[in-house]
Amino acid sequence: MTGNRLRAEGLVLTYEDRTVVDGLDLEIPDGQVTVVIGPNACGKSTLLRALGRLLKPRRGAVLLDGTELSRIPTRRVAQKIGLLPQTPVPPEGITVSELVTRGRQPHHRWWQQWTEADEKAVGEAMDRTATADLAERLIDELSGGQRQRAWIAMALAQDTDLLLLDEPTTYLDIAHQVEVLDLVRQLNRERGRTVVAVLHDLNQAARYADHLIAMKAGRIVAQGAPSDIITADLVHEVFGLTSVVVPDPVTGGPLVVPGAPWQCG
Amino acid sequence: MTIRPSGFSVLRAGRGSFLLHRRAALVATVLGAALAVTAVVYLCVGESFVSPTEVVRVLAGRPSPDEFVVGTLRMPRLVVGLLAGAAFGLAGAFIQTVARNPLASPDVIGVTHGAGAATVAAMTFGVTAHTALPYVAILGGTAAAALVYVFAWRRGLHATRFVLIGIGISVALGSLTQLFVTKGDYLVAQQAKVWLTGSLNGRGYDHAVPLAVISLVLMPALFWAARAQRTVSFDDDTATALGVRLGRVRLCLIVLGVVLASVATGATGPVDFVALLAPQIARRLTRTAQIPLVGSALTGALIMAVADLLARKLFSPIELPVGVFTAAVGAPYLMWLIVRTRSRSGGAA
Ligand SMILES: Nc1ncnc2c1ncn2[C@@H]1O[C@H](COP(=O)(O)OP(=O)(O)OP(=O)(O)O)[C@@H](O)[C@H]1O
Ligand SMILES: [Mg+2]
User: Fold this and answer.
1) What residue ranges in chain A does DSSP mark as E strands?
2) Among the partner residues A85, A98, A112, nearest to B16 by beta-carbon distance
3) Is the ipTM, as predicted for this complex, more than 0.85?
4) Which residue has the higher pLDDT, B182 or B345?
């Protein structure tokens, strides 16, 4: 699989003295949707931050097109990799349309703040996320789901080949979750975008991932096509959960059904 | 339908395109007009009243019997006040942007107390020439801010640590200043006290020179800063993901703020509330997602001119230091801000 644009070699990731990831090798397959799953605090966000050069590896390296990420000017990186953190904080008093516009920042020159490309990218991002109706609203005054869609619109407006999304479906109702995941797939299939997303819902992960990465305690337990790797054993190993894996009635892929609920008596 | 961020107009010139916040532009125009009116009133009133027509004649460079009073006595003081006010306003805008805190001001990052300690020390050791003191203040302010920065830096700059260390160093420098005041002889102590309140009494064009020079030199930096402001107001991860070199951008913004605040403090002494108030007032007027720079500068200049007008006139013939008036307005505002911030966060912090 060599020749993929985004790779990590011997990655060691630490916060102060706490080592979260210790010696991890990884390839993100080009032109595919990669989904990262794993229990809370296993290091998913930490890994994603390293892939998006937000966290400098203690040892090892993340390579983009063969060049160490930390050697590429951060603005250049921002033109190629977009990243939406798990809990982004907006500037106080910003409107939705202005927030989405900020996604264009890496493409701007000081004398070119609103080009045709900007207009197109912002318009499209807002259409696709159904945020056009919210354009003039303040971010602080939106519901959690509306806010999440505005953030996704900002990441889309950045118009990058690689898109890293940390739990893009949190806060969204089931319909909007499906909408966002469909959008991700559409971007991938129609535009050839490479997407890495952290998701918590195993069944959504199984449905939308071309490539699934299961993590536990900073290590990769298994990776590959969902239908190849999702088994009751894996679910037990990663999450410590008893479950049954049956064929998804719609897609035929794996569907994880947790074991019987607790009952008295 | 043409799409653009709401509230903005696009200005095009050749291949260039600029986003203009309509409300911010309107606010700047209105503030500019208010400033012009205030300036004329400022030049009219004083120990003797000069009619506005005469003031305008003097401003236009035509001969007038009031040329001495308006052009020589009042004008230089007004110029120093306007420049210092604008510099304080901008300094506050930069520092509050980086600290992400409406309570931050040059006071908080050591500039004011550094300038104060250096100036009072110089006075104690017999340096009284008013051509030398502004430069002593600039040196002291910058040195103190640099010290705060060095202590606050630990693999990155964190807003909270920055502010806390700034306050700590300010307190230390404040006591040092008091020590100099009490050790110095009576005259020096008196002079030091007036300086420490912040005053425009007896300010002339030689005080305006460093201010004017620095303002001109920093003009191009404002374009850069206005752009940088748009991204530093996100959380660190989001800002970095948008391609911002956060550490460097923050350092540059702070340096701008420190230089402006030091130079202004050198000219007038610490009229600190201007830097605290101006950016917040300006932002409430423009309703922009970041602190408006032009608005902050104009608001700072306006506050300074109005406050000094009152300081000169209200208890005439006694002229009070302008710092007394800015403090009279600023202190209640500061309390209100603190109370409001507390009740907003619901005591969770
Ligand atoms: N800024 C930080 N400083 C110190 N430790 C951190 C920091 N961020 C995360 N950690 C720690 O690193 C470990 C991995 O955290 P990470 O955020 O990567 O988990 P995650 O897999 O994304 O979890 P979740 O599903 O809850 O989002 C955790 O033990 C966490 O406490
Ligand atoms: Mg996480």
Assistant:
1) 6-15, 18-28, 33-37, 59-64, 67-68, 81-84, 162-166, 194-198, 211-216, 219-224, 243-247, 254-258
2) A112
3) yes
4) B182
